[in-house]
Amino acid sequence: MIYRLLKVELYKIFSRPRSYIGFVAIAILVFIFQLALFVDGKTYLIFLIQQLETNFSISGNILNGYLITYVILQTLIVQMPLMVALVTGDLLSGEASAGTMRLLATKPISRANIITAKFIAGSFYTLLLVLWLGGLALGFGLWIFKTGDLMVLSTDHISIIPAAECLWRFFAACVVAFISLSVVTTFSLMLSAFSDNSIVPIVSTMAVIIIFTIIGTLDMPLFNNIKPLLFTTHMIVWQKLFQDPLSISTILKSIAIMLAYIVGFLSVTYYRFIKKDILS
């Protein structure tokens, strides 16, 4: 039964034009980034490292596909919650407003199975978005800019990642990014269970993410105790996979917190939808 429901849910998702907005937007933005860095990348890189050359000797293919991919991921992953919420935010509310949920209620299908199928379908869509971004950025980056060691600059240190380690780090980063975006998937699905308007969960999801992100950037004592509790704080933990040495404990802690959020949001969704009167 779950398999049949899942096929139906996937068909619903990929039959909507809005589901392809994220894929098209990612393709266009990756192309723009690749083109801009191909034309002006060396100038940008010289400006970026000119002060470092007074203390270090820098040589080799710095502007390589791995650096391009890292820059693209760092820029675009923060925009992807909108692309995810645009589709997953109305998985329940969209059907409620269209009246198709009442038709489902007349079938011998448990409500728990409906939620499970929608969650898996939404997660699959999210996974495809992450793989699309990672595949395009890395594939075209290596094709155009070739390989080389990855130099990652941060506010307090410089990490040099050997080329031999870059592929598995990018793969791990995509896995962690998928987990972080799954938090958005389940959060928007939860809000969708509380609404009969398909727009409200989408807008509410983005509003919460924006508010949490702003709080996370404020360096004020009032918010310092709150920041570790916000799921947006942990959604950027994939960047720590490009630090040397790796902070495995920090990464695993953030993953555990995000998984807890996923379980929590999904549990609320199950409870709300099972108790909800969808026949009226």
Tell me the number of helical segments per DSSP (H or I, 4 or more residues long). Answer: 12
Number of strands: 2
What percent of the residues sit in helical stretches (DSSP H or I)? over 70%
Structural class designation: mainly alpha
Q: What is the count of distinct domains?
A: 1
Strand content: under 5%
- Give the termini distance in whole angstroms: 25 Å
**Low-confidence regions:** none
Topology:
Blueprint: H1 2-14, H2 21-49, H3 65-76, H4 80-88, H5 93-98, H6 100-105, H7 111-145, E1 150-153, E2 158-161, H8 163-193, H9 199-217, H10 221-224, H11 231-234, H12 248-275
Antiparallel strand pairs: 1-2
Helix pairs in contact: 1-7, 2-7, 3-7, 4-7, 4-8, 4-9, 7-8, 7-12, 8-9, 8-12
Characterization of the model:
The structure is a single chain. This protein is mainly alpha-helical and 280 residues long. The protein has one domain. The protein is built from twelve helices and two strands. The protein has helices spanning 2-14, 21-49, 65-76, 80-88, 93-98, 100-105, 111-145, 163-193, 199-217, 221-224, 231-234, 248-275; strands at residues 150-153, 158-161. Strands 1-2 form a two-stranded antiparallel sheet. A hairpin with a 4-residue loop joins β1 and β2 (158-161). α2 packs across α7. The protein starts with a helix and ends in a 5-residue tail after the last helix.
What's the short story on this structure?
By secondary structure, the chain is mainly α. The chain is built from 12 helices and 2 strands; from the N terminus they run H-H-H-H-H-H-H-E-E-H-H-H-H-H.
